[in-house]
Batch of 2 targets.
Target 1
Amino acid sequence: MRALALRGEKNKTFVQVGQLKLVLTVLVPTAIYAFLVTWIGIYVSSILFIGFFMRWLGKYPWWKVAAVSVITVFAFYVVFEMWFKVPLPKGPVEGWLRLN
Amino acid sequence: MEEIQALAHGFAVALSPINIALMFVGVILGVLIGVLPGLGGANGVAILLPLTFGMAQTPGGATSAIILLSCIYWGALFGGAITSILFNIPGEPWSVATTFDGYPLAQQGRAGTALTAAFTSSFVGAFVAVVVITFLSPVVAGFALEFGPPEFFAVYLLTFCAFVGTSKEPPFKTIAAMMLGFALAAVGTDTVTGTLRLTFGSTHLLTGFDFLVAVIGLFGIGEILLTLEEGLAFRGAKAKINLRVVLDTWKELPRYWMTSLRASAVGCFMGIVPGGATPASFMSYGVARRFSADGDRFGTGKVEGVVAPETAAHAAGTSALLPMITLGVPGSPTAAVLLGGLMIWGLQPGPLLFVEQKDFVWGLIASMYLGNIAGLIVVLTCVPLFAAILRVPFSVIAPIIMVICAIGSFTVKNAIFDVWMMVVFGLLGYLFKKLQYPLAPLVLAIVLGDNAESSFRQAMLMSQGELGIFFSKKLVGFMTTLALLLLFWPLISWAIAAFKARAAPGRGGSA
């Protein structure tokens, strides 16, 4: 039966506190992001999500944060809605901009 | 020589300008996906799959779509090596073994040599596998035309048991992962009677869990969470490839022909029997070290140590498509995603493809030859560009990848619920990786669970509940026996080892 027994696993720490913190810093915003997509659509929440990461973890200046997140999301809009005609979930903001 | 003729026709299909353009687009996207953490062959193809829905509806479009997606796969196979060698981070699980000798080579300033060796041997491995596919798949498909439900179930059984027998994880972990996959596959409408199972009254679960979402979450989000533990920055060696380095390396490579031959054989075998590219690369590395003249120096930066795993990984990754197109049984998670694509485009994967969709099948096979050539050209010329992408700070690239994953899961069924599921699967994938449970059996079980179940139940209806039907004919009996052998292989190999140990030193000692 020894062949079937799980091979001697080193009794190591499953996750270190520092690592867990890092993982949670991504996991929690991602969960919130999934929530937001439901309410305000994927575009606005993506801008917020990318912006949050850059500002909070990357400590970039605001103008860079704004530029990168808006340009990226605009690129997604062009690729998905215009090229491939795949509609993505939208919220009230797109409604004001008359994009849907 | 019927195959040659069919292949020539396939080349005619694949060589149209649009298809060649798609090949290069696919390969470039694929390398990009292979290089980026959190995006890999399986989830990259899964994310892009919904984009081909429109493309596949035009005449000949399904062929273009599969060319695009399979080239993404080749590109991802190539791309994994770049990060392994330059950054000591395997971009893909199958390139873990490449880091053993690839990274030391890069540290010695021979990154160019290592990269050229990796790409060239990838190409060789893939080429051998495509040749195998060209000549073996019509034969297998011919056999499979006469398959009934018992035979198909035996093939599925073989697939699942092969995972247990060949996986490098402990067999119980593989079985546990697989059983979880079956449980997830069972959710939704019963394929035979049409009753609802395990939906708990939720309308979201009526159609069951979509495995594409599972793939995106498990491999994508899970991978990012894991990468995060390592910290937020990548540090890597400089990549420089010029023609001189390439030619010098090519002069050196023929010396290792025996290694590549062995690696290709290991790879093709592991790809067809669904062991997958990852165990193939490890196995091939081990075999090469054992057989090599200076095996002791493996791990210190031997070119041979790059050739062996890369050849095997590509051979396995490519030949994993053989059971997919001939039997409808994928040999790897990425092949499973491609299979899902076929079904969405309205093609029934399996032996009939060779009869009814000649253009499609042979176009795909021809594109494998061409796609790998395109891949070799792209990676040899663009390495510095791809390496530069990894220097983009993680705090920028990670959220963008997450957004791409979210969009990918949404577009599968246009359901926001799937974005939720992606996050859940991501957490699951992270835990699986932390606890060293294999993900591939889980994914394959989700994909094949329903089909395996319905062919089992049809077989049971045929035989009125007699399990003997799986041994009733030569072919089905052989496959079932082979499957059971593979399932109990960990026990058998242990027994053999114990027996040997007793026979050899035990001669003078205890009885």
Target 2
Amino acid sequence: MSQRQFPEPFADLESLAAWALATETQRARKRRDSTIGEIRAFYDAILPRMEAIIDYLNRLPLDHMPDDAQRLLHLTLALAEVAPAVELFNQPLVTDGYDPERFIPAQGQ
Amino acid sequence: MAAVAKIDGWTPTPAKVWHQQHPELGTEPVPIEPYISQSYFELERERVFRKTWLNVGRIEELPKPGSYLVKDLPICQTSILVVRGKDGRVRAFHNVCSHRSNKLVWSQGGSCQNFSCKFHGWSYNLEGQLTFVPDEENFFDLKKKALGLTSVSCDTWEGFIFINFDSQPQETLQEYLGEIGETLKGYPFAEYSAERYSWSTELHANWKLLKDAFQEAYHVAFLHKRSIPDSFTGKSNPFAHGLDYKLYKRHRQMSVWGNMEHKPTPVEGLAYRSGALIIRNDFSADHLPPGVNPTKDQGWALDLNVIFPNFFVDISEGSYFTYNMWPLAVDRTLWEVRNYFPKAKTAGQRFSQEYSKVLFRDIIMEDSSTLEQTQKVLASGAKTHFVLQDQEILIRHDQKVHEDYVGFYKERPQ
């Protein structure tokens, strides 16, 4: 049994842990390397839980979160990353868009 | 502007009204040559980039004495070092050692007590003075006081650091920025610069092609039909007509309308509820300076502020973003994009900013690919001119300002 990734009230989201990535670079790469089906599955699983997640996280200090809450925050940021794919483009990347590997985020971003 | 009719927050403006206000610009198609000509590009190097004030960063990047940033500027064939001295003053230098002209600092930025050249160990203090020369007694009549780093004019406006390679700039930064600098003063740039996200890319397109793409909204309904189908366009304003256009001597502004009936997507709705977004329809603009949302319209989305030659400060209520377009060659540009937000205090605000940032990034991915496709056929000779409509007046104005500096057509025998 692997260690719990997220705070206890969100144990139902454990299967999404691969999306809890710390940087925009990692999240954008995960988006690029996933199929739209995989992205949509993540989106559909987390979206109904978002209000509860934000409520929970808003009670914690943003800069000093416990690790499990930090991972949950990263999960919400992954939703922000994939939302355009699901809601706007219906494919992982921007339709007729620029190569994301050439659009380089600042170091550590 | 007298209101003709008010529908969905949009007050329609009469067709062709903006050019009527600026008859000096004419209405003719504008030449493509400045975007593909090598000789035009060389003139830009000499007469634009070596003569004007150039934004190279923000003051938050230099928080304390010893903080420095390095910027390679191929268009000016140099690298510059901007450093906060022990006295707190920010100075800029050519990043070039006085010994045998090695590039002094190779990193992009950081903090230090002095700068030491890795070639032969010559050292400089934070004020650019030469302080140490190894094996000094073997040099001939070495005048260390005269061998400091070569300084570059440097000043700040609202926390933005500008440099000027002209040894005697014809205008101070304040004079250079003029009215647009005055009217934007007071926007909370410092507060809104707490969270900074940056990207850079080397785009295969002329730098003016990039500028043009971001100083009109005519393309929004088409190029961005997937990403922002109803944010800047709506039933009453299908072609994203601007709220206002202001042309200054060399800078310019477009105030962009935002559709108050925009239907947010599910995640966008979440982001709205959790914090500030690029587009917000429910704020009060009372606290903003006169140059922000100049018509004080409720249906205001953002302002495009184009600072000549290559700096955009685009402002909305909850964030702002900047572009710096650095020409590398006539058909290549280093493009720096930054998106700034106030400090996120809660997870909800952090999420909201992330959504806003990602959407913004994805939108400009649509612009970027288009620019490279344009560049691929630009020199074909198929077309010699761009055809501009009234709402593309900023592009026309930019071409005129360029010609004022470059004098390409003025000096060429007809």
